[in-house]
Amino acid sequence: MQVVKNYLYNVGYQLLVLFAPLVTVPYVSRVLGAHGVGINSYTNSWVTFFLLLGQMGIALYGNREIAYNRNNKETRSRIFWEIEVLQFMTIMFAYILFVIFLYFFAHGYREFFLIQSLLIIAGGLDVSWYFMGMEDFKKTVLRNMIIKVLSIALIFTLVKTPDDLDIYILLLAMSQVVGNLTLWPYLKSSLQFIKIKTLKPLKHFYPSLLLFIPTITSQVYLVVNRIMLGRLADTVAVGQFDYADKIVKIVLAVVTATGSVMLPHIANKFANGDVRGIRQSLYNSFDFVTSMAVPMMFGLAAVSNKFAPWFLGSDFGATGKIIFIETPIIVFIAWSNVSGTQYLMPVNRVKEFTASVTIGAVVNVILNIFLIEAYGANGAALATTVSEFVVAATQIYFIRTTIRRRELFKNLWKYFLSGAIMSIVVYRFSSIMNMSIQNLVLQVIVGAMIYVAGLILTKAPVINQVKEFIKQRI
């Protein structure tokens, strides 16, 4: 039950992180236009590199270490302060490098780069990894909800013309800073005092560094696509790709929220030697994320062409095709979330996880070089899709000796068949109906009913999971 509650809280947290910019998209896309959106995305992508360098895999490492030692208050307190001191040091180093980059290389959009750098500072204040390691997701969600709602209100109030791009970027960055600060008061009751002179933060540097490589390479799809688009195409293409990616990722967040929940859960099982429990958790998790990802992929693909220009405005007519091309990553990332984030990471098989995302990153860069020049933003979307497939396939290959792949995949046809039938009906509805909120809701409801009926008729395993959950609640 605790895992289910944490999943629901983390869904809320992941949705809030993405929902804040997405709920303002129809307004901002029309006010700032594709060019302004592209500038924000391009400068943010560069700053994200320095943020990742500063965080250096600490969030994943800290999450796991706290999960290993959550039952010992003194030990987890020492670990927290050592890791937080290390994070402060690495963030300072990253900011110094950013200042050098700003002075010598970032001659265009310097003002926007400087505002975006607040995100690096926010990274140094981030302690959400501690609460995730404690499997306490409620505090993170509730505190951030207030900040996100406030930032949305301020965007609608203060961003009025294309000249307000700097205000828009500032509001997004400050919401991250303030959101991270609001978690600190909760640490007082959860930690105990540790003498500063007894702390040894540098002992965590090497294990964090091992996690830095998969962290930075897994972000290639998020960052490099936009940077290469800005270089090989233009900021308009960056803006169109950025919003397509945001729409896909908001759907994906519902599925991948299981990763952050299951990582500390499985890490704790691993620390206690519960191998059988880990294996069963993975089977259940894989089946669950597949049951969620497949209808989201088919449903979003079915409405993408009409949805994009209606939701984003006339500047983003080409975004519908980008969304359609990128929708398969919902399933691929869901699978790699189970094999990588929920298994390889918590059981400390970091080398295999690193190898998989590195291979995916290399494939992504190579494909981008050829596809962006030929097809622009559509090429970047195709490169992302192929790369995420490579990552998922590689990770599933790595875990072949640990779990039975036949057990993982034997029920996939039930979800894909139900999803495909649902997609055909929803696409037909979309093609004959004008796009509106009412019609979109109707299409979602009809699609969901068809999909659930398909799962019941094929006796998909997730139906038993739902029945068991309801029985426990009763």
Provide keyphrases for this structure:
2 domains; 474 residues; mainly alpha; single chain
Describe this structure in words.
This protein is mainly alpha-helical and 474 residues long. The protein has two domains: 2-191 and 198-410, no CATH class; 411-474, no CATH class. 82% of the residues lie in helices and 0% in strands. The protein has 21 helices and no strands. It has helices at residues 2-23, 25-55, 58-68, 73-104, 110-116, 118-125, 128-133, 138-158, 165-181, 205-218, 220-232, 235-271, 275-312, 319-326, 329-344, 350-375, 377-398, 405-409, 412-432, 437-458, 461-473.
The number of distinct helices, counting runs of at least 4 residues, comes to 21
Listing every helix as H and every strand as E from the N terminus to the C terminus, the arrangement reads HHHHHHHHHHHHHHHHHHHHH
Percent range for β-strand residues = under 5%
**Largest sheet descriptor:** none
Report the uncertain regions.
Answer: none
Average residue-wise pLDDT: 82
Q: What's the overall geometry?
A: globular
Write the layout of secondary structure elements.
Elements: H1 2-23, H2 25-55, H3 58-68, H4 73-104, H5 110-116, H6 118-125, H7 128-133, H8 138-158, H9 165-181, H10 205-218, H11 220-232, H12 235-271, H13 275-312, H14 319-326, H15 329-344, H16 350-375, H17 377-398, H18 405-409, H19 412-432, H20 437-458, H21 461-473
Helix pairs in contact: 1-8, 1-12, 2-4, 2-6, 2-11, 2-12, 3-4, 3-10, 3-12, 4-6, 5-9, 6-9, 8-9, 10-16, 11-12, 11-16, 11-17, 12-13, 12-14, 12-15, 12-17, 13-14, 13-15, 13-19, 14-17, 15-17, 16-17, 19-20
